[in-house]
Amino acid sequence: MAKEKSLMDKLMDLFFKIPKCIKKVKLNRITFNLYENNAVGYEVDEKLITKFFTYVKLNDNRVFNSQTAKVKSYTSVDDSLFITYEENDILVKQIFKTFINATYFITNLEISDKLNNNIETNYIRVLDFAYPDVECNSLFLSLDQKMILTPYDNDMWVKYESTPLRPGRTSYEVTCIYNEDTLNGMLIGALDFDHFKNGIKCSDHDARCYYTLSGIADDGTHDIYPHGYISGKTISSPRFVCGYYNDIREALEEYGLLAMEGKYKNTWNGESIFGWNSYAAGCMTLEQWEEASNFISNNIYNFCDNNNVIYTNLDANFMLNKNKMKKIVDDMHKKGLKCGNYLSPALGMENMEFINPIKGTSGAKYKDIIMKKEDGSLYPKIDGGKPIDVTNPIFIKNLELQVKEILELGFDYIKVDFTSHAGVEGERFNKDIKTGREALYFFYESLNNFVNKYKGNKEIFIDFSISPLLPGGFSHARRCCCDAFGHHEDVKYVLNALNFGWWQNGSLYEFNDPDHTVLYESKMDRRDSTSFNEAKSRFNASIISGTVMLLSDNYGPFGNETKINNAKSRALDIANCNKINELASFKKAFRPYYLKSDTCNIYYLNYNNRNFIAVFNFNDYKNTFIINPYLVNVKDNGKLLDLRTDLETIYNKEINITLDAYDSVIYEVL
Fold it and tell me: What are the residues facing 35 on neighbouring strands?
């Protein structure tokens, strides 16, 4: 006779009860399991990966939760599945689309009111992942699973992280949940960026539960107010892609392409950018700008694009003589050189709020167009400046005048800084623009329209500096990190952005910009000069990033003569190697050898039947690195050619590389 279960056993059975699957829908390689508790299961090749629900909160406090909603219908057509739900008079259609041979699906929601009323929401969880049970992939129950935290933007020296899941941890727009050793894992990423800011957030109550959130507004997005509301008779959520991969590096590369599919993109028909930027050099005069141009073009013969062109860029240049600037631009053009200028139109500096009149207005001041708080006071500072209302007609007119002036002076390159300020939440002049993301889109479109209006027949290179990662496509390049200078900490910081963001190059943007490359001494970070190894590694980090190659040291004529000569000597020693500089002309970012919590030391590139490996030592002592040839897609036996020294090394079965403190090397594998 069977022993009757104890109360504890019964409670445990109830707690761990697995809901019954009531329907399976197979679409290409993916099967969706529909459970009695309304969970949706995601299978790839008949292996269950995970389960999830969906959730919406409306402005009138009504809530839709698919766990408790009534399922009205399941419909599959071709490659798609449609599930319709109803709860609290809210109708939700959940849409899934699959693709031949793909392991990912794309999903979104269509939300409406049963009574056909106008609805408003700023809170949508398209994918709300349930606590994993034993049927799901074992990764999601593992203590070893990690989550990539993607920053919203690159301001204030924020970094990417690979970290254990914890309550409240947030990644913006895209993440991977994965095993660091095998690189197996699941990618989750937003695909639409025109109305909502998106995040993937660990539950406040259980870190193994996480959800996508369209409508995120928090410290990471620099917001002091909740996300604005989207309204309509039917609201379409952003689309999200979700997919399980054997190697999440492939997932991220695929995500970059999917995120730009069908979207506007600024294409660049020119070569990779080589040149100089004035910021880190602390060069605030036109004479220093001109001297840098002369020094690089006359001495560093191999530091240029394939047409022997270099760019010399003025950064944060204010109150300089425009007539003299125009003459220097014209002189540079006669020599076949190009020039860059700087804009930070969405940033209101505190000393400009009441003093400086705005060009093109009858006495308006910056305080008139800075975003206002609910009590009418000015919005607080973000990284030293206040966000401007980019929908205000005064701002729009001033933006047009700034772009017009830069292009009429003859500049070929515009660095646009602090664009994140355009996207904060708050009430704006244009009441049709309800969210910070809509305002950011409006700003980007306005900027591009003015550039196209005044550029004439020549191409203008647009480089976003401090800016959100997404939406992409509105500039040719985006800086992959915040300000980076020339010390070993800067090398590691730049490579953190390459480590977790290499995939953005050639997809979201034509180029990753690793910031100006300091080879001797930066005036702006107020540290001593760099060592030779640090400088070489800083240069190599820029070379493998995708890339925009801009030096930034003081080459005279004003300043300490000894330091000027040392800066010139350092540039000649490091920046003049043709074989190294050739890599930048490929426009390809190197891929990380691994993805772990610390920044990767090893990167590789397989391009046009050529193979390259870059290795960095972040330590203050000599270190040896062992590389499996299979993991960098090269043959088991071969030769390594040091591109800087032309020395060859034979390897057999494994690649061993020893580097001095803070040193680096780039090899071609022969």
Answer: 21
> 184: which residues sit within 8 A by CB, 6+ positions away?
139, 178, 244, 245, 246, 247, 248
The continuous run of DSSP H or E covering 616 comes out as: strand 610-616
Other Cβ atoms within 10 Å of 382 Cβ, number: 19
Crossing angle of helices 532-543 and 488-501, in 10° steps, is: 20
Sign of CA dihedral 645, 648, 654, 660: negative
Other Cβ atoms closer than 10 A to 295: 21
DSSP 353: S
Amino acid making up residue 5: K
Query: What is the structure's pLDDT at 463?
Result: 98
- Which of 273, 279, 272 minimizes the C-alpha distance to 314? 279
Residues of the chain with pLDDT under 70: 1-16, 350-355
Residue in 167, 245, 261, 178 with CA at minimum distance from that of residue 208: 167
Answer left, alpha or beta for residue 78, where phi above 0 means left and psi between -120 and 50 means alpha. left
Q: Is 491 exposed, middle or buried (0-12, 13-18, 19+ CB in 10 A)?
A: buried
Q: CA-CA distance, 155 to 607, in Å (whole number)?
A: 32
Q: What are phi and psi of 125, to 5 degrees?
A: -105, 95
User: Average pLDDT of the chain?
Assistant: 94
- Nearest-angstrom CA–CA distance, 291 and 298: 10
Instruction: Determine the 3-state secondary structure of 596 from DSSP.
Output: coil
Instruction: Compute CA distances 99 → 104, 244, 582, whole Å.
Output: 8, 14, 38
Chain centroid, CA 293 distance in Å: 31
Contact by Cβ (8 Å): 256, 507: yes
Q: Is the dihedral of CA 466, 471, 476, 480 positive or negative?
A: positive
Structure-token pair, residue 453 = 């209006």
Distance CA 371, CA 584 (A): 40
Close Cβ partners of 224 (under 8 Å, ≥ 6 residues apart): 373, 379, 380, 424, 425, 426
Distance CA 198, CA 443 (A): 19
Burial of 307 (0-12, 13-18, 19+ CB in 10 A): exposed
Sign, Cα dihedral of 69, 214, 237, 165: negative
Could you report how far apart the first and last alpha carbons of the chain are, in Å? Answer: 74
Q: Which helix (H) or strand (E) holds 338?
A: strand 338-343
Q: How many CB atoms lie within 10 A of CB 579?
A: 15
pLDDT for the residue 3: 62
Measured in whole angstroms, how far is the alpha carbon of residue 321 from the centre of its chain? 36
CA 471 to chain centre: 9
The C-alpha R_g of the chain, in whole angstroms, comes to 27
Question: What pLDDT is attached to residue 348?
Answer: 87
Q: Are 353 and 367 in contact (CB under 8 A)?
A: yes
What integer pLDDT is reported at residue 1 of this predicted model? Answer: 47
**Secondary structure of residue 557 in the 3-state scheme:** coil
pTM of the model: 0.95
Could you identify the residue written with the tokens 């979201």? 508
